[in-house]
Amino acid sequence: MIRRTALTALLAAAPLMAMAEGKTHHVAIHVDQNDPQVLNMALNNAQNVAAYYTEAGDEVVIEMVAYGPGLHMLVEGKSPVKDRISTMALELPITFSACGNTIAGMEKKTGEKVVLLEEAQVVPSGVVRLIELQEEGYAYVRP
User: Fold this and answer.
1) Exposed, middle or buried by CB within 10 Å (0-12, 13-18, 19+), for 16?
2) Is pLDDT of 9 > 80?
């Protein structure tokens, strides 16, 4: 009887123990528009996802990939969301990736070096980076 009660208690607690261990979620956010509303929505998505999983006792890893017109999000002097990015980079498990192909195209077109926000890292290709992240099991989000 005691064994059966102990086993029943253990089985009942198993889901709670699994929740306590937490799970790590991986999210790729795609940004290819230079629209302040879209840029803010992408940042809101990242904040909401992080808050949700943190409250659930889980972890989250977020990578925001910007290319094409969306690269302006990460360009010094052009980003309408620079302050939010600075704050979020300190508060969230987030990486901001800038497309090297887009940077090269912008530099060729303008003849000037593209200076990124310090929070940004360059990846060779934004599209390829999104493919790689999805192949690694990241969930894909496009605001």
Assistant:
1) exposed
2) no
